[in-house]
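Example 3.2
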Amino acid sequence: FRPGEADGPGSHANAREPIQAPDGPWVKGVRDDVANGEIAGYRDTLILDGTSFTWEPFHWRTFWFIRVHVEPGPHAVTLRDASYRYTTYPVELKASFDAGRQDYAEIMEMSWRTLRLCSHETFEDCPYYEQLHYLGDARIEALTHMYLTGDTDYVRHSISLYRNSHRWGGLVDSRTPSYDPQIIPYFALLWVLMVEDLWEFAGDRETEFLRTCFHAIEGVLTYFRSRLRPDGFVGKVDPWNMVDRADEWPRGEPPALVAGESTYLSCLFIAAINAASRLFRNLGDPDDAYRWERLSMRLTPLVREGAWSETEGLFLEGPNRTQDRLSQHSQALAILSGVANQEQIDRIRTRLVGDPLLIPMKLMQGYYFARALEQIGDYRAFHDVVLDPWHAMRAAHLSTCAEYWPGRSDCHAWSSWPALDFIRTILGIRPGAPGFASILIQPVTDGLDHAAGGMESPAGMVNVEWSASDGVTTLTANTPKGVPVTVRLPSGIQQHYPEGGRIDLKG
């Protein structure tokens, strides 16, 4: 922000942002209600010396509205100009999505704007408050970034910063760079998943870089393996594991995780082992893959049997932890890790969405909730339930995605992932093989009757349009020539196109 040219000796000028509504105690209301709201936030104070000058702050500012308040001295003050320079990581939006709905168009725009505003030297959680490169945020930001822009350089940079923070005890930092290092142990498991995300998107062209991460991946997995209990659950991992915001979870930590017997964490560990095993096996370390695969095969049935409640038809928060309120988190991770078998999934499905007895997954964790819904074939809930907070943000006239709803930060890119789902799940564009060496188009049509759009893949531009009516999907796609494409329709019809190009399929 550049308040610009001003003069007037002895005067004070303050610039503040953002806007809040004075509904009793400070409560954020409709964000652009300038007439009834009050601006509160960080401020810069200038003491004018009577000369003409141009001023700008030392560090960039994030804002929507700025109020300039002048406390005049004995002379007049003239503000000749007020302007700003926009600065973020230099990248262009290459993806598009259109479902014929204004609300989805606005969520797509909000997601992209949020992602950009949280991208400078690194991904960051929030450009207004912490401005830190947090790992739990970065994994979601990196995936969304790749699918919206096609760029992988920024993602490689993010992964390498965590790799370089690898500690002798095995973990990577939860945020880096940071003058005050911090450890959130379970975030390190998300980093392993993040490394696999890059491999799946970019493929062989990132092999050399990805192999430089193997020592840190081994360290992370070994750290958690060293804390396994005889019953197969991960034991205590200090100092802090902020999973989600819930009244029953002080400081965001599930009591079972604090106690060292968490179903959620144990399932996440298994998911990370499986991701690492795929990396090792496909990138030239089959012996390491075999070693970790054996551990996953041993732990999976132990956690499945140790946490499952036949009475509830759900996974408990830990073995015999009937005192804890159950959570969507443990159910979703049991599904995603392969801990839940099909019979258990069938029972979980009846309660996963809409059961008030379950602690809900909030905005960041909602990404994993949506993955579980997609995996069990109940993705309609993405439209009917999961997007509710984003619709509430729109109603409050937010132009970016919030950290929580309601919440403190109005711009938090861990909530930008609906745009990713628009492209990867609803349009169904994803790699059929790492690096888009082949392309899979598998649209999920539940909840919509039409969608169109595309993305820039490493193989080239992929555009998809589909319409659905009475159980029949009509799909048209334009894909890079010479790249094999497989199309799977919701009806079960599957067709392979060895040379890609123009595709038309109905069924």
